[in-house]
Amino acid sequence: MENQPEKEQKPEQRRQEGIKPYVKYSGMAFQMIGALVLAAFAGRWLDGYMGNDKPWFTIALLLVAVVATMVLTILSINKK
């Protein structure tokens, strides 16, 4: 029962097996970069809008983005 023929596998199982690991991990890297860039631009805009002398919003949003992307990366890696 454990060795199912390929024709009995669910379509989503076949799709996940077909994804190469480098594609999966490079996609996660681009997501992380995108989230950080978005957080940096949003933080700079908020700092300018609020008239802050120091980049408090930029720092806060970047820290939130780093933590969020790390959590999502760990969850994605642990997911089968």
Describe the structure.
Helices cover 76% and strands 0% of the residues. The protein contains three helices and no strands. It has helices spanning 11-18, 21-50, 56-78. The chain crosses the membrane at residues 21-43, 55-77. This is AtpZ/AtpI family protein. Keywords: Membrane, Transmembrane, Transmembrane helix.
Alpha plus pi helix count:
3
Largest sheet: none
How many strands? 0
Helix-strand category? mainly alpha
Task: Report the portion of residues in β strands.
Answer: under 5%
One letter per element, helices H and strands E, the order comes to: HHH
Cα Rg:
20 Å
- pLDDT < 50 stretches: none
Shape verdict? elongated
- What integer is the average pLDDT? 85
Q: What is the share of helical residues?
A: over 70%
Distance between the termini: 20 Å
Features:
80 residues, single chain, 76% helix, mainly alpha, elongated
Brief rundown of the structure:
With 80 residues, the protein is mainly α.
Q: What is the element layout, followed by pairings?
A:
Layout: H1 11-18, H2 21-50, H3 56-78
Helix pairs in contact: 2-3
